[in-house]
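Tokens as discussed.
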């Protein structure tokens, strides 16, 4: 019988447990009761590590989780292999200088008390603000300097993970929601992982405890106070509701009885059997009873064809979670612990500046700060009444760097983010776009460009023209212009 979790090698120097101990509960515990005692909490982590659960995941906003882990690491005898400490840096969007990044990384190093972070994962709120690429490239420089062992991201969709990789960022992982209820990661993101070797860390695999025998056949809960359960109840609601969820529980329960394991084991096993998944993240219980032995059961059985068919039949009675991984943080329906995040996103500073046109005060224009806008005499976008015109837009980052060289699909993703930012600056949304024109250097690249366009406009369906332009300037493979009309009834 297996007495420790299976392991996997994420990189040449990073060997991890396939059951990662997540420390998000630290923030929830400390919210009401104050900071945990570092020594006693570290002792609890040491017990996990001694039992083979030696990979820990935390973040800059998980209360004192980094400090607790640092205290545990300080107890490791000299010469012994220390547990793996993975953390996240989640900066507020804004100017992203080398100093800002180094300060964020150094704070992680100081709190963990280490000279190198085993794996640093990066989160970004909205891709309309392009500083996320600056942050990742600066993090890579610190990786090359030796301060970071490996780079990962969290809550990135497939398109933006592909863009980062195409732009030369050596990412090894992406941490996303993945469960019997939220199956988005099994689609485009897993396909990308198969092509690139990036691995997934799955969180939410037990949906905050809802994927257990406790909820089978039970009435729908009301007035949920626990932040984790309130979050995953939103996932259940959007996936078809409590009745459809009971179908998943019933199918998983039958499989669990067949194999002599728990329903939760079946939920975790289903995720772990996806090739893209390196590990699932389980909550490390610091003040409650532990379930380490039950968690090990996920490695003591495998799902067969009949098991998968039963789950697929249950899935067929549910609705897919909309969008791609991470969209729950960036657009409706917001499926987060705090619910609607539009107030948070509206506070994100715009990457563009707006001003009235001097000769035509009724016109508003947006500028991206490119040196070419004043030299060549144009605006990134201009609004006249309820009509907004966005200039031909390329994958230019900063002053003059073309991102994702040689990858037309990734360049399109970046361009559409710039167009979205232009519209937002002038009071519109991508849903207001009525026409786009796409210019291609090489017409054979039409498919990845069209797929990227469809990912954004699949529900909007604007009029579109696709043109082979031949030799675009510089290294650009794609250029896109857009036209939007804002509904007058929605204009303040």
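Sequence:
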């Amino acid at each position: 019988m297996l007495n420790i979790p299976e392991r996997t090698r994420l990189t040449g120097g990073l060997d991890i447990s396939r059951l990662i101990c997540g420390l998000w509960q630290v923030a929830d515990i400390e919210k009401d009761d104050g900071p945990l005692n570092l020594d006693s909490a570290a002792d609890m982590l040491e017990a996990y590590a001694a039992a083979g659960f030696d990979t820990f995941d935390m973040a800059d906003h998980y209360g004192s989780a980094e400090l607790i882990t640092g205290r545990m690491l300080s107890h490791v005898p000299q010469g012994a292999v220390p547990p793996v400490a993975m953390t996240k840096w989640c900066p507020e969007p804004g100017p992203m200088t080398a100093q800002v990044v180094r300060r964020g990384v150094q704070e992680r190093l100081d709190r963990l008390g280490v000279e190198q972070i085993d794996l640093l994962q990066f989160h970004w709120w909205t891709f309309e603000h392009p500083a996320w690429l600056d942050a990742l490239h600066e993090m890579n420089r610190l990786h090359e300097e030796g301060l970071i062992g490996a780079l990962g991201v969290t809550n990135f969709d497939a398109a933006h993970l592909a863009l980062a990789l195409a732009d030369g960022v050596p990412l090894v992982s992406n941490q996303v929601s993945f469960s019997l209820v939220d199956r988005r990661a099994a689609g485009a993101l897993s396909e990308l992982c198969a092509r690139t070797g990036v691995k997934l860390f799955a969180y939410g695999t037990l949906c905050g405890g809802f994927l257990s025998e406790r909820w089978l056949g039970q009435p729908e809960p009301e007035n949920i106070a626990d932040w984790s359960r309130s979050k995953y109840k939103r996932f259940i609601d959007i996936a078809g509701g409590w009745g459809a969820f009971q179908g998943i529980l019933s199918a998983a329960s039958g499989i669990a009885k067949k194999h002599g394991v728990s329903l939760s084991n079946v939920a975790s096993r289903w995720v772990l059997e996806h090739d893209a998944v390196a590990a699932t993240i389980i909550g490390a219980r610091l003040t409650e009873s532990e379930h380490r032995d039950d968690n090990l059961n996920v490695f003591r059985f495998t799902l067969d064809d009949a098991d998968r068919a039963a789950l697929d039949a249950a899935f067929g009675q549910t609705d897919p979670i909309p969008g791609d991984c991470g969209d729950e943080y960036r657009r409706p329906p917001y499926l987060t612990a705090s619910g609607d995040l539009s107030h948070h996103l509206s506070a994100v500073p715009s990457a563009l500046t707006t001003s009235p046109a001097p000769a035509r005060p009724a016109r508003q224009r947006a500028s991206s700060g490119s040196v070419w806008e004043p030299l060549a005499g144009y605006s990134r976008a201009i609004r006249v009444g309820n009509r907004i015109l966005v200039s031909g837009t390329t994958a230019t980052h900063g002053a003059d760097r073309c991102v994702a060289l040689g990858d037309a699909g990734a360049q399109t993703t970046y361009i559409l983010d710039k167009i979205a930012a232009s519209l937002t600056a002038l009071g519109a949304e991508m849903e207001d776009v009525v026409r786009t024109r796409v210019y291609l250097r090489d017409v054979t690249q039409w498919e990845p460009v069209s797929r990227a366009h469809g990912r954004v406009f699949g529900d909007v369906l604007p009029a579109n023209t696709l043109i082979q332009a031949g030799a675009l300037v510089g290294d650009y493979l794609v250029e896109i212009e857009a036209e939007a009309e804002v509904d007058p009834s929605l204009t303040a």
